Amino acid sequence: MDKIPKIDRQREHQANERTFLAWLRTSIALIGFGFAIARFGIFLQQLNIAITQREAPVNPLSNSENLGLALVIFGILAVALAAWRYNQVFWQIERADYKPNRLMVWIMTGVVIILGLFSIPLLLRRDKNVPFRSPVPIQPQSRNLQRLTSNANVNKGTITTLYKQIFLFLK
Predict the structure, then answer these.
(1) Taking Cα atoms as reference points, which of 68, 80, 81, 58 lies closest to residue 115?
(2) 0.85 surpassed by pTM
(3) Helix, strand or coil for residue 14?
């Protein structure tokens, strides 16, 4: 145990801790991205329903909820692996028999590549049942017009109604 000078052992333990914290930040980012992707997919489904007034079919395998869930699960597993590796390296430093192991790096790389490949169909998918809308918003330009149209009966397909539906959904 005293084969390594005390100051060198402290540096090695601090480097081990920094490495663990880097893995921890990566795991938190994976969990955060997974959560955001899953929730944003649900938001897009609700927005599509509000615009088209009908529910679009969802692919049971390649959808954003599954990709988000996979990222969250992988982030949790990465934290567990990082803690296990931190503990393993801690005792190797104490025994002065540290052996580098690149297996965890290759596992993380492989899983991130696989999850990235699974996200490609989500990026390329286009909904064919969403009608084309004019990019110009249909809104009154003056306050007087806005007051007049706010009292009028607004059709279900207008942008104003869409904004109200989105607001109620987010509320």
Answers:
(1) 68
(2) no
(3) helix
